[in-house]
Every structure is written in structure tokens, then in C-alpha cells.
Amino acid sequence: MFCGESRYIWQAEYWPNWRYDLATLASPMAEVARLQGVLLGRLADVGFALRDQASLAALTEDVIKTSEIEGERLDAASVRSSIARRLGVDIGALAPADRHVDGIVDMILDATTNCHAPLTRERLFGWHAALFPTGYSGLSRITVGAWRDDAKGPMQVVSGPIGRQRVHFEAPPADRLDVEMDRFLHWVNTPTDEHPPLLKAALAHLWFVTLHPFDDGNGRIARAIGAMLLARADGSPQRFYSLSAQIQRERQDYYDILERTQKGTLDVTDWLAWFLRTLHRALERAHESLDAVLYKARFWQRHASIPMNARQIKVLNRLLDGFDGKMTTRKWAVIAKCSPDTALRDINDLLARGVLQKCNAGGRSTAYTIDL
Ligand SMILES: Nc1ncnc2c1ncn2[C@@H]1O[C@H](COP(=O)(O)OP(=O)(O)OP(=O)(O)O)[C@@H](O)[C@H]1O
């Protein structure tokens, strides 16, 4: 019990009348809008096929990283194919479907490709059911397709070993959820000029995660709602950057700022500034990943007339996707699933054709890179 004092933001007197200092946020907001504009402009020039590849790359990162926050590691190949299948993008051989991966992909694609459709409780229940198709989270049975009921006590965000857990946040009691969620959904669906669209995305994320209406999956759904409002904000249902991936990279910061905000006042300027900074970095990364997609496309165009076998194409694609470390004959053989002799023959052929070059990185074994 909180003895009447307001410990969490949802207990504040004027909840949920968000306040912030627009003057402080104006310039980071303009900078994010500029980066978004430049990114969409670059994409407008690259043609359908590459645009689809760029979007596939961003969505794959989004799905993988949003699940990593929860501690699940999804298989990148299943995620890529699950998205590619739904977007109708050709990525060559498709990996087999994984029901679990399909659920989270369904949610993120529904949130973004149908970003203009109203957000309703039925839609949220559908997303939740897609995340937990068995009705279990790990070994615990959870309520799916309905708000949580607090049968096992209040909803808390805790960390640490059992017995010495630290409570970071406590969400509003379950009996308030019907009213609270109706108010939230009405706000999401009402187009007003009350908040700039980017700030509305940040507020929706915070508001939802503060209500924490489900037994589990609240973080992932909050990020999907954020992505939905960002898609509305930039007027493009196709995604070319991933805020979830950036949040995953900076997740300790994300937890800290959330905790401070949820224990603070209704003035959430700091949370909004953090959200804009993170979005800014997500956009910078998207520019880099677009550079990589374009570079790869140009590389294959330039070498279109050189005959190559499947092994060579496979390893070159690995190098083009940003291979960590040095590519040696031994690693080549492992990736191409061939003997070191065959690997060396493939490598020598590409050296002779000017596709590869030796790099003098030192060390005992020779390493190879793409000849720029
Ligand atoms: N220290 C904290 N203070 C306040 N909120 C927190 C804190 N740590 C995490 N959270 C919020 O709680 C969410 C986790 O809730 P829940 O476990 O229901 O969601 P999830 O989708 O299963 O998890 P995750 O976000 O880890 O993938 C986090 O994403 C974050 O939004």
C-alpha cells in the first residue's frame, strides 16, 4: 500500500495528463524528422527490389531484437523467411516456418502495415495470443486474450533472485484496467494536434507499458504500438529502421529511464528526449544498413558477367553482409561446406578475376577481402 502518497506516475493527481517542455524537444524532433526524410528520399531512388530488401532487413532486425530484450533468441533465417513470405519478397530459398517466430512477425507486420487501422482491445488480444500461442510463458500458465486479473498479487516489474527481489515498478490494479485501457485506446485512435506525431509514439509506448495490462509480453507489445505510431508519423507503412533494435542495444538505459519516469511526475520531457535520441541513432544505423544493401547490389551488378559457383556466391554474400574477423581458407571451407583444397581453388579463381584480394593483416594465415 502506498498510504495515499503518489509513488508511481499512474497515481499522480492529474494522470494521464502528460506534460513536457516542447521548446527543449523541438530541435531533436526536427533533426529526427530530417533524417527520416533523407532516408525516405534515398529509398525513393533505389527501386522496388532494393527497397523491399532494405525493409526486410529492418523488419528482421526489429523482430529479432525485440525478442532478445525478453531473453529469447530467434533464428534469423526463420525470421527473415517468415517476413519475406508475408511481404512477398524473394530471398531465394526460404527457411522452414517456426510457429513461434510467425506470431511475433504477425504482430509487427499487423502493427505497421495496418498502421492506420484503429487499435482496439480485440486487436491487442490478437497480438497477445500470437505471442503466446500455447497460453504459457516459459513454465507458467498466463491469461491470454484478456487483461491480467492479478489473481497472484499486484503486477510488479522485479529483478534479482527470489527472496531478495527488487521492485522497480508496480502497475495499476487489475480492476482499473477496463477503464484505463479504454481511455488509452480512445486517445491512440483520436487524431488531434495535441501532440506532434513523434511524441505521440513515445507517449503511447510509455502509457501502455505503465498500464502493463497483460500477464506478459507488455514490453514487446508496447514497442509494436510505438512502431505503429511511428509508421503513422512518417506516412509510410514500410519500415526501414528499427527502434526496437536500438532499444535492445541500449536496454539498460531504457530500463533506467523508464523506472525514473514511472516514479516521477507527469512532466515526461526526459523520457521524450531519450526516445528521440534513441530514434535518432536508429535512423543513423538505417542509413548505414542502406549503404550496405546498395553496396551489395552494386557489387553483384559489377561482377554479373563473372561465372561463379554456389560456394563462391555464398561466401561472398557472407563477406558483403559484414563478416566479423578475418576470412581465411579454413573459415571459407567451413562456410562453403567443402574441403580446404576446394576452398583454396575457389579463392584463387576469385583472386585471379580481381573479385578478391589478399589482405596483409599479419598473422600466420592469409586472409582475403573483397576487392573494392
Ligand atoms: N526497471 C524497470 N522499471 C520500469 N519498467 C521496466 C523496468 N524494467 C523493465 N520495464 C518494462 O517492463 C517491460 C517488461 O514487461 P513484460 O515482461 O510484460 O514484457 P515482455 O515483452 O515479456 O518483456 P521484454 O520487454 O523484456 O521483452 C520492459 O520491456 C519494460 O518496458
TrEMBL record:
Keywords on record: ATP-binding, Nucleotide-binding, Nucleotidyltransferase, Transferase
Looking up Pfam families in the UniProt record yields: DUF4172, Fic
- Asked if the Swiss-Prot or TrEMBL record annotates the protein with the keyword S-adenosyl-L-methionine, the reply is no
Q: Which GO terms describe its molecular function?
A: ATP binding; nucleotidyltransferase activity
Task: Please list the residues that bind ATP.
Answer: D216, G217, N218, G219, R220, I221, A222, R223, Y254, Y255
Q: Which residues cross the membrane?
A: none
Q: What is its EC number?
A: 2.7.7.-
What is the active site of this protein? H212
Superkingdom of this entry's organism? Bacteria
What is the name listed in the Swiss-Prot or TrEMBL entry for this protein? Adenosine monophosphate-protein transferase SoFic
